[in-house]
Amino acid sequence: MARFDPYENNGGTCVAVAGADYCVVAADTRLSVGYSILSRDHSKIAQLADKCVLASSGFQGDIKALQKALAAKELVYEHNNNKKMSCPAMAQLLSNTLYYKRFFPYYAFNVLAGLDTQGKGCVFTYDAVGSYERTGYSAQGTGSALMMPVLDNQLKSPSPLLLPARDAVTPLSESDAVDLVKDVFASATERDIYTGDRLEIVVINSSGTCRECIELRKD
Amino acid sequence: MDGFSKSIGGGGPNVPAGSHPAGGSQAAAGGGATQRTQYPYVTGTSVIALKYKDGVIMACDTGASYGSTLRYKSVERIKAVGKHSIIGASGEYSDFQEILRYLDELTLSDHMWDDGNSLGPKEIHSYLTRVMYNRRNKFDPLWNSLVIGGVKKGPKGDEKYLGMVNMIGTHFEENHVATGFGNHLAIPILRAEWHEDMTFEEAVKLVEKCLLVLLYRDRSSINKFQIAKITTEGSTIYPPYSLKTYWGFTHFENPAQGAVGSW
């Protein structure tokens, strides 16, 4: 008997890694439903502001609605404050927007990343209802459990309990961080059925945003 | 999040045992509980579409089932929208008629602006995505999977467009799409054999190959199809026709031959 379920998981994984003066954001481009692949070429990354990029995985209908809502609010902010939203400001806005639908959530697992007001890389990681944290790196989505342990091993942040406070961003160079992201996606693609096809990598640094795509396994 | 929980065409339309108060707000006391969750009653099966050299080609059968009964055999599930697009729908037929009414309003106001601009397939796809998503948010979905195809002049010349949106608002753009059973049976064929800039004849051959597989394997499909195409010249929905089928396979003659045991 047909029964209406307002959610579906369209799969995919998103990752972001913050560096001293850059930020790497990456997501696969596979859109799935059940055991079918709907598209091999569907981007999960949205540029919300100059130095602020949102990567989301989960239910694609909610993700697109969330991206549109945030883009609209960003425009209103620009009109009111005569400047583009900074990444930390967008981070708070995203959290509030998600919590607003606390009792009918956006089924979106987000990673917001970019450069903060000092030009340092920042990554914010979220759950579906808006609780968030600034970290040095994060993975969200169906392959996140496969990726996080590897990222922890390679990019382990110093404990937040240490004094003086240590930097959470990685000392790795931009190309090393990109290589790590490529490796970690190749690994997740092997075992996660929802991750694969193509990897879209966005690098944000002081000169702007640059996009690169590499092929992943299509099975 | 089980994808199979939304499969249509399986089982008859059973009247729900009671109203379902999930999520959305209930009417005030004295107004009675509002029925929100739906079940599809008269449903159409797969629609397939692909981009080719001159535009987009779309095809589906002309049947509409009432549960397991094949109730209507001459139903048009592909319609033209404006000058630049065609839309095909699977799922609840009455919801498709409702969507056509929304699109009528849209194209009418577009015509009345009379500013030389007209809605293209991309705009219509975007509009329908918002409509489907908003209905899903109210727990009152339009129970359809829609395919929108068209050609419109853009900054890079004539731009072909083909997209799909389902009942909860999942949407995407691709070179070839299929709804329902087409996802499982037709898409593998399209992925193997589709290429850029197919001629109309090649595209029709490929579409017929998919329609034949769907006819053999989808219980709710019938042997009466309509093909539609959209190019810069406009849309054409061809009259219905049938495909030649072959049932003389030796395995069909004596299906129990070679079966071991009581199977």
UniProtKB/TrEMBL annotation, chain A:
The keyword Cytoplasm applies. The keyword Ligase does not apply. Component of the proteasome complex. Pfam families: Proteasome. Transmembrane segments: none annotated. Non-catalytic component of the proteasome, a multicatalytic proteinase complex which is characterized by its ability to cleave peptides with Arg, Phe, Tyr, Leu, and Glu adjacent to the leaving group at neutral or slightly basic pH. The proteasome has an ATP-dependent proteolytic activity. Keywords: Cytoplasm, Nucleus, Proteasome. PANTHER family: METALLOPROTEASE TLDD, PROTEASOME SUBUNIT BETA TYPE-1. Gene3D superfamilies: Glutamine Phosphoribosylpyrophosphate, subunit 1, domain 1 (3.60.20.10). This is Proteasome subunit beta. One of its GO terms (biological process) is proteolysis involved in protein catabolic process. GO terms for cellular component: cytoplasm; nucleus; proteasome core complex. InterPro entries: Ntn_hydrolases_N, Proteasome_bsu_CS, Proteasome_sua/b, Proteasome_suB-type. It is found in: Cytoplasm; Nucleus. SUPFAM superfamilies: N-terminal nucleophile aminohydrolases (Ntn hydrolases). Belongs to the peptidase T1B family.
UniProtKB/TrEMBL annotation, chain B:
It comes from the Eukaryota. It comes from Miscanthus lutarioriparius. GO terms for cellular component: cytoplasm; nucleus; proteasome core complex, beta-subunit complex. InterPro entries: Ntn_hydrolases_N, Proteasome_alpha, Proteasome_beta4, Proteasome_bsu_CS, Proteasome_sua/b, Proteasome_suB-type. This is Proteasome subunit beta. Residues 1-34 are annotated as: Disordered. The keyword Cytoplasm applies. It holds the Pfam family Proteasome. The 26S proteasome consists of a 20S proteasome core and two 19S regulatory subunits. The 20S proteasome core is composed of 28 subunits that are arranged in four stacked rings, resulting in a barrel-shaped structure. The two end rings are each formed by seven alpha subunits, and the two central rings are each formed by seven beta subunits. The catalytic chamber with the active sites is on the inside of the barrel. The keyword NADP does not apply. It is found in: Cytoplasm; Nucleus. Belongs to the peptidase T1B family. Residues 16-28 have a biased composition (Low complexity). Its main location: cytoplasm. Non-catalytic component of the proteasome. GO terms for biological process: proteolysis involved in protein catabolic process. Keywords: Cytoplasm, Nucleus, Proteasome.
